[in-house]
Design brief:
single chain, eight-stranded mixed β-sheet, 1% helix
């Protein structure tokens, strides 16, 4: 299934009306609150979850990163699910607090948009803080529900930015992502409860093949992962290994392969895929070109058809190969080396070293990158005098090497988040910085 009506990636969908572009409905600022909405204009036939068809007039948007049907869910204790009287969709169940503290920075709001014409409900947690009135770090994520008729729907999870995973209470748990209906858990995200994996939700490819985007189809009340494993770009499934040496084999879609700390064989299948190490408890070294150099959780891993790597929340070294790679460092001070090919390198949070690699033209002699002192991010272009071609210019404050310099080392003085595509004249790698 192509999901052609599901646009974009992990970035929040805006332009929906209202003062912020996320809809006309805004929840009051609160902690552990909720607001009831009537979705009859969108889901006239209700929503089927588990064995129950829930009425569209009993839909609740809950402050703590969930929506529920049948009854509200105000608490943030993850041990309280599932519950027999309700169904819950949790894009990020954690201790959200949108109350004002009286001191900057302040939390954003929670918005809702009901689009009857297109059959879409959009709930947006826009730059929300954590308990207790803490907005030093904020999360921005979104849930969209697409009506498919007869009680069927697609739940689309978008993660634009994830900077915190739990509130200040001692018994507060790290975020949980999943779906429950009555006494059953229909789906649990592999990042649930794992702080490093949760912090990478915005930078790692989801099951739809785009960073920060997850599509969960529900048919006849059950999660139907077959709909996202068929042929076509941007579709695939999540394959998760356990303890020991695993073999994970993808299919025709773009798959997420999550091995363990054993010596795993990761086969992306015909559709390609990403080796995701977000569950690792420490930094890793990954070399797609020479896996014998791997270390940490990746030690002993081998790959077939894997062109993309998602790192950990620690200091990683990720190296591509001769294909077009996508490397995501996540949090931590990472080193990303693209190698040959047209690569996308995303350092994520932390002070990163990003090495674009070599030009593919036969007369282009690569130059070796020198080591840089600890500090802000640095971008190393392994070509003579490579500079971003007009009209793509660095943001104000960028420090560029003089024209003709053998290597352009550009310290990251840019305001986050920025992203440019260095395409056109002599380069076709994309660099993203945080």
């Amino acid at each position: 299934m192509a999901f052609k009506d599901i646009p974009g990636g992990g970035a929040l969908i805006g332009g929906l009306g209202g003062p912020r572009g996320y809809g006309d409905v805004v929840l009051p600022r609160n902690d552990d609150g909720w607001q009831r909405l009537d979705l009859g204009g969108v889901f006239a036939g209700g929503m089927r979850m588990g064995g129950t068809l829930f009425s569209p007039d009993a839909f609740y948007v809950n402050t703590n990163g969930t929506v529920s049907l049948g009854a509200p869910l105000a608490m943030n204790s993850h041990g309280d699910l599932p519950q027999p009287d309700k169904a819950v969709i949790a894009p990020f169940w954690a201790d959200v607090d949108t109350r004002l503290s009286g001191e900057a920075p302040e939390s954003g709001r929670i918005w809702a948009d009901l689009d009857a014409g297109n059959g879409v409900v959009t709930i947006t947690w826009s730059d929300v803080g954590a308990f207790r009135r803490d907005a030093e770090r904020t999360n921005a994520f979104q849930l969209q529900l697409f009506d498919r008729g007869g009680g069927d729907f697609d739940a689309v999870l978008r993660y634009d930015r994830v900077e915190w995973t739990k509130g200040a209470l001692l018994d507060s748990a790290h975020g949980w992502v999943g779906v429950t209906a009555g006494e059953d858990t229909l789906y649990e995200h592999p990042a649930s409860g794992l702080p490093d994996a949760l912090l990478g939700l915005d930078t790692r490819p989801g099951n739809a093949g785009e960073a920060g985007l997850w599509v969960l189809p529900f048919r006849d009340g059950a999660f139907d992962d077959e709909l996202i494993s068929g042929p076509g770009p941007g579709q695939g499934r999540v394959l998760e290994g356990g303890a020991g040496d695993d073999t994970l084999t993808g299919g025709a879609g773009y798959d997420t392969l999550m091995g363990s700390d054993g010596a795993d064989f990761l086969d992306a299948g015909a559709g390609g895929g990403v080796a995701d190490y977000g569950r690792a408890n420490g930094g890793i070294i990954v070399s797609l070109a020479d896996p014998s150099r791997n270390a940490g959780w990746a030690e002993g891993d081998t790959y077939l058809g894997v062109a993309d790597v998602a790192g950990t929340g620690h200091a990683d070294t990720l190296r591509g190969d001769g294909s077009d790679n996508r490397l995501g460092g996540g949090a931590g001070d990472d080193t990303l080396e693209g190698g040959a090919g047209n690569d996308r390198l995303d350092g994520g949070a932390g002070d990163d070293l990003i090495v674009g690699g070599t030009r593919s033209a036969p007369d282009a002699a690569p130059l070796s990158a020198r080591e840089l002192a600890p500090g802000p991010d640095a971008f190393v272009f392994a070509q003579p005098a490579v500079q971003p071609p007009a009209p793509v210019a660095p943001p104000a404050g960028a420090v560029a090497a003089p024209a003709g310099a053998p290597i352009a080392d550009v310290p990251d003085t840019f305001a986050p988040p920025e992203e440019e595509d260095f395409a056109g004249l002599v380069w076709d790698d994309a660099l993203a910085w945080a």
